[in-house]
Amino acid sequence: MLVVPLAGVVGPGGGSLVSNTAMADSEWLRTVPVVDEDEIAELIEGLGSQSYATRVRCRQRLSRIGLAAFDALREARDHPDNEIAIVARKLTSGVEVPWAVSTDSPIVQEILNEYGSRSVLARRQRIGRLAALPTMEAFPALVRLTRYEAEPALSRFAAMALLAQPVRATKELRSEWSTADADAGASGSRDDWLGLSTHDRSLMVMHLQQVFAKDTEFSGQWMLQYASELESGRFEPEGWTELIEAMESSWDIDDGASEQDVARGGIAPGATISGDEMFRLTWLNAERARVLGQTDDASRFFTRHIDVIPPRTRELTDAALWAIDHRLFDVITAAHAKHQSLFEKSPSLMYASAEALLESGQPELAAERTEQALALNPVVNSEDPEEPQLHPVLLESHAEAHLRIAADLIDRGLSDWAEAEYRKLIDELPLHNVESAIARRELAEHLAELQQPAEVVALLQPLVDRMEKDDDFRHKLTAHDFQYQSLRSHLDFQAGLDLANKDDQAAASERMQNAFSMNPENIDILIAMYRLDWNEEWKADVVGQIESVLAEIDEDIEETRQTFRETGNGRPGRQTAIREMLLANFYNQYAWLVSNTEGDFDKALKRSIESLEMSPGSDALLDTCGRCYYAVGNLPAAIVTQRKAVELTPNSPPLRRQLKMFENAWLDANPGMTLKELPEVELPITKASPQELTDRQRRLGVMPPDGPLSFLDN
């Protein structure tokens, strides 16, 4: 019953095809004792013997045999003899499996140390850690866990981790720093399929086919289907459809299942796979098809199995946003048709549906959907006495929901819809209402990014006036993170920009100087003043202020270095993290101010790169670095860096404006050429891993939409 190890496989050139990493599972399998299947069957029957001595002897012998008896013992868990079934369950859950073997890498051995003695949750977390490793390094261990993990849910989790690993690796490969289009020619490549070479895939195919040849569990069937795809180099939707249809009989459709079981996506009585697992597997496979360049297959596959999406707003929203991001609009249409009542009760889902309609060329219908979404969750009670009156706490909750939705719409680049959400709160709620004040502030920030200073002034002036006249109101807003000086400074700054647009130099100068004096940390005010360039006296005064700020930043940098060099309090790891966070901020401030005005551009670029080494993958720091490359005249590097910033925050107006400026500058300097002819550049900038980016978003309190691979991080 043992599978044949891979050690003897020889490649076309006569050399071994098996690397040390891929050999790990084969070496481990060699340690399993070879035992006759008839003997194992006899020993299992002996577990129910009337003789106590026979039962003990059979149990001890099966324990020594270990994994060679795993399949037979797993079947015996449902033995009609309860005594045999009970002992079989204990043996399969308590077999001392050598999860780590000598050919595993040190990190794999560390992760698998005492794996079998840990709780289900701890084992799941360890599988997730394995999935974050390079594909071929973790592959043998994940195969082991998929095949022999006694907890079926963990076995399926390990199987999905195996499916997801190369997808995650490919996304990282396609995020490398290059002027070339990362996706060009990568889709469907048979020589580099999901970041795996033909050589690696051949090893994986043989291994999966041998290890799971006799496995009848769902996870084993998934792995055989995966092996078929590794061999063909394509996602095979029909094979997965057959598996999903076969699993439906074991899904949450048991007659004894309660409505609560179905609603939660939990496993119903008698079922062997949960609705959440079905959803994750289907979504993961759609993502695999998309990453392989089989976009039509991804859309058709997910649409065909739209029933697997749990009838819950969170999962529907996550799937809908994923489909919109990748222009798989048929998925949205199918989900809306299947779950119409849920869509019509959820503003997020209605906006997702409207966005899909807008992107597919149906603006009128999209507008109808946005009106429906905006009308949901009223924030004031109807004046009609016959209408039901909502509790003030519920109305406040509705207002907070509108704020969240508006912020999400801005992130997705749907500015007009976001403004309508903010305006609803501003128009329907009194000025002293906290949610109304927050709506004014957030909309003002967005309109400032869109360079609409007059509209910003109109929003903030009533708020600032009320804060200056009403101490109670001012204290209430302070408790909600409103700072009067910062708000007053921003109002004066935007008023100064508006006056400058009207060529009122005297008034604009006064408002901007006042804005900077109230908030000298906002160096964007100083940059705007520098760009006005009204006269020599004005310019000299602004340059003097810039030099003063740069000197202060240098002092802050030196003080931070000295403080953390001399202070030994706290944990070293935390001290280092705080030091790097502060230094990265100071370096970035210096680089941004100099690159947008004047000074030592080379020093600014050096400090910008150092800030990114301390905090890789920050869109704001990348934006600064792009500006520094522009300042030193390296336009290709500026464009590549700025593209990375835009990739992280694709709908930021300032980031996109700066990218457009860099691209136009390069085109002007290279007449007759196109951006496709941009020369290759190599940048000394640290690239953040997906996990680092997710961790940063969590620290900032911003949770990204749940993606098809996020189950590995939960």
From TrEMBL:
The keyword Iron does not apply. Keywords: Repeat, TPR repeat. Residues 689-714 are annotated as: Disordered. InterPro entries: CellSynth/LPSAsmb/PSIAsmb (IPR051012), TPR-like_helical_dom_sf (IPR011990). Signal peptide: none annotated. Gene3D superfamilies: Tetratricopeptide repeat domain (1.25.40.10). This is TPR repeat-containing protein. It comes from Rhodopirellula europaea 6C.
